[in-house]
Each structure stands twice: as structure tokens, then as C-alpha cells.
Amino acid sequence: MSDERSAPVIIITGTPGTGKSTHAQLLVDESPIPLQHINVGDWVKEKGLYEAYDEEWQSYTVDEDRLLDELEPLASTGGIILDWHTSEVFPERWADLVVVLRCNHTLLWDRLEKRGYSLKKIQENNEAEIMEVVLDEARSSYPAEIVVELRSESTEDLESNVARIVQWIEAWRRDHGQSTET
Ligand SMILES: Nc1ncnc2c1ncn2[C@@H]1O[C@H](COP(=O)(O)OP(=O)(O)O)[C@@H](O)[C@H]1O
């Protein structure tokens, strides 16, 4: 329950390349309270929280139980941004806000090409973005009132999205009896 936390847990999700890490980094800089950015994919690799590596798809099969065990203490304390392309794995009680980033598929294709993804992986992700896979997953895993879909196609989008999340953090603090004055 968020009542036990002194700071919120924010999930930023979206198809790879939609801008999760870029948003999370800017949010860390602009947040009125300290937030730790957890790039879950990097964590999985660094901490070896996977069962296997799939050569064909160039991706890891995550050991979800171990991942959740690692994250649980951080989620209980709060003050974290969970940055991952999937959100259903996290327990519903962890999340205070779930941001789903969206991007035009042509633009997304270019971003993933620049990243050096294989054609197969670009196609898979592009199709997932068109089919709204990540959005559907977030909507079926969390209450509608905490899921926010935001466009991430330009620097203006990035800045206004982060400003909006900062406002949300300030409101969260007020609701939890914490002053926004320092
Ligand atoms: N809103 C945006 N406006 C312009 N470029 C963006 C935006 N969001 C992401 N990008 C660019 O797209 C690429 C992928 O962004 P990244 O944050 O790594 O995505 P993700 O973490 O979702 O995989 C980066 O080069 C980043 O600079």
C-alpha cells in the first residue's frame, strides 16, 4: 500500500525506444524529492536475474521471482522509478503511478534502427507499438485512475510529460501530509 511509503513508486513503461530512460533521467533531475531510476533490463543483466539468453530474439528470459525479491525492499520504501517495457510482472500494490509512453511507429522504427536492433526485433517492437500491447498490459494490470498514456515524440513532449509527473509527485506529497516546501 502506498500509505506505508514515504515516497511514491512510479512505473514508466512503453515499447523499447519510446523514451522510458530519457524520461526517467530527466525526472530524477527535476523531481522535488530524491528518486532512484531503476532500468530493470539493466538490473536483470547486471545482477544475473535471468534464466537464459535467447540468441534468436537477442533477449533474456527473466527470473521473475528473483527480480521481485530484489525489488521488494525498494518498492516498500518508495522513491523509485521502475523503467521497463513490461509492467504486469510488478504487484499491483507497488504502483502509485503507471506512465505508458507512446510513439508514432515510423519514428520508433528510426530510433530502434539507430540503436542497432536486428530487423526482426525492430519489426516485433514496431508491431507491438501499433497493437498497443504495452498499454493494454498496463490497463489490465493496474486501476484505470493510475495509468497515464503520454506521447513521447519530441523534446517538447518530454519536457511537458516530466513537468506533469513532477506536479503529480507534488500532489502525492500533499495527499500524504508532506509539505512541498523545503
Ligand atoms: N520525447 C522524445 N523526443 C525526442 N527524442 C526522444 C524522445 N524520447 C526518446 N527519444 C530518443 O529515442 C531514443 C530512445 O530513447 P530511450 O529513452 O532510450 O527509450 P527506452 O528507454 O524506452 O528504450 C533515444 O535516442 C532518445 O534520445
TrEMBL record:
Q: Does the keyword Zinc apply?
A: no
Q: Where is this region: NMPbind?
A: 39-62
Task: State the source organism's domain of life.
Answer: Eukaryota
Taxonomic source organism = Sparassis crispa
Put simply, this protein is called Adenylate kinase isoenzyme 6 homolog
Record field: catalytic activity: ATP + H2O = ADP + phosphate + H(+); AMP + ATP = 2 ADP
* Similarity comment: Belongs to the adenylate kinase family. AK6 subfamily.
Could you tell me which SUPFAM superfamilies the record lists for this protein? P-loop containing nucleoside triphosphate hydrolases
Gene Ontology molecular function, alphabetical = AMP kinase activity; ATP binding; ATP hydrolysis activity
Job of this protein = Broad-specificity nucleoside monophosphate (NMP) kinase that catalyzes the reversible transfer of the terminal phosphate group between nucleoside triphosphates and monophosphates. Has also ATPase activity. Involved in the late cytoplasmic maturation steps of the 40S ribosomal particles, specifically 18S rRNA maturation. While NMP activity is not required for ribosome maturation, ATPase activity is. Associates transiently with small ribosomal subunit protein uS11. ATP hydrolysis breaks the interaction with uS11.
Q: Give the record's keywords alphabetically.
A: ATP-binding, Cytoplasm, Kinase, Nucleotide-binding, Nucleus, Ribosome biogenesis, rRNA processing, Transferase
Subunit structure and binding partners: Interacts with small ribosomal subunit protein uS11. Not a structural component of 43S pre-ribosomes, but transiently interacts with them by binding to uS11.
Name a GO CC annotation attached to this entry. Answer: nucleus
Give the source lineage, highest ranks first.
Answer: Eukaryota, Fungi, Dikarya, Basidiomycota, Agaricomycotina
Q: Where in the cell is it found?
A: Cytoplasm; Nucleus
Return the broad EC class. transferase
Gene Ontology biological process terms, A to Z: ribosomal small subunit biogenesis; rRNA processing
Q: Where is this region: LID?
A: 114-124
